[in-house]
Target: Threonine synthase
Amino acid sequence: MMKYISTRGNAPELTFEDVLLTGLATDGGLYVPKEVPQFSLAEIESWRDLPYTELAHKVIYPFVEGCVDSDALQTMINEVYGAFGHKAVAPLQQLDNNEYVLELFHGPTLAFKDFALQLLGRLLDYVLERRNEKVVIMGATSGDTGSAAIEGTKACRNVDIFILHPYGKVSEVQRRQMTTVVGDNIFNIAIKGNFDQAQDMVKASFGDQSFLRGERKLVAVNSINWARIMSQIVYYFYSSLNLGGPLRPMAYSVPTGNFGDIFAGYMAKKMGLPIEQLIIATNSNDVLHRLMSQNLYEVHPLQHTITPSMDIAVSSNFERLLFDLYDRDGAALADLMAKMNKRTESVEVSEDKLGKARALFDSFAVSEDLTVQTMQEVYKETGYLLDPHTAIGVKAARECRRNPRIPMITLGTAHPVKFEDAVLRAGFDMPKLPHHLSDLMTREERLEVLPADLATVQEFIATNTFKD
Ligand SMILES: Cc1ncc(COP(=O)(O)O)c(C=O)c1O
Ligand SMILES: N[C@@H](CCOP(=O)(O)O)C(=O)O
Model:
């Protein structure tokens, strides 16, 4: 059975089931698999003709084995991805010779988050029914995680879900996708602050859950929850196999905020998939690009951009990569994270450790003007409208590509219909919302606006959790 350990080395080892029901480890770290499942090239190659659903089972099962029955997992996967709006689930769109976009926006909320959060909802139901437990989900969103989490768990009988988003700083479609979902167990909190403050409140609440009076546990839907990363690994395998992998390597460019999606690519490589290059593509909230290029970790004030989902200054999952760069030395990492989490001074990572990251990762930061220009450029070349986050990925791919003979795949993380400001600024008409969302703009909204104050937010959660 797979065991999970904390990146800071001072928390109990857990099974998948407990990791699913946990946010942060008790030492403040993030859980990662103790041993990474390995697949040989021959085994990966034998999966070449599998549909997405069967491939997903091959990749995910080793992470859940012993906790989730194999047939039950396949049933959940079939239900989740069978309901996506494209039969291929994650189709590739070709832009140029050896240049592709992997469309990850055919799920119900039109962003890549559906891949993991639809499955996470099913897994929670499965585990909570068996344990006869109720939990409280608390999550922070810069726009996409929130709606995908609500959509993925709205039918779960044993959860109340509280999603914090930064007031006025997500797009209208994103906000409405969260605030118009009807359900007594769904609560949207717009905090008067930014995403980092929301994420900090979520992490602080995981650290001290006494506001829930010991009666309920908190569960995470952000990518601090390993179940998120696990499901996102699958599409790296799927896209590679569709383009001749694993017999030829691939390169990926990943629009990055919390470093979850690109960490999933790094995991795919560790599991045996030949990946030659991973590109960290950021907007002007570019802490990771500055770290990679200048070896200086310095948190700057958060900027509000036309790519709101990537408006993140403190990138949670980078800790999982640092854990590997520090040879899985939890104590060393705990020291480093203590410095980084102060956020008031710059921190240097040892050149030797960063050198290991630079062998695989490149990075590029894309301004708003360049984002818009890339949307225009790609449309002119191909007639294909990119969402602005994906445009950041495409621009970074074009700037950082190491070898044009290797297919370069940019993760298409969202549908452009979610981002009116960017689409209009680039001079395009807004695409139509898909049928299931066609009345989104007239549905009734429900949300609570609160100050960015931990005690107030926790009081709101406790009151609404125990109201009956
Ligand atoms: C559309 C979109 N693109 C990119 C990202 C960045 O992904 P990650 O936070 O996993 O780096 C997000 C949010 O996380 C997103 O919603
Ligand atoms: N971009 C995300 C922010 C949260 O990131 P997560 O992947 O850790 O959930 C969003 O759109 O909410």
Q: What stands out?
A: The longest strand covers residues 159-166.
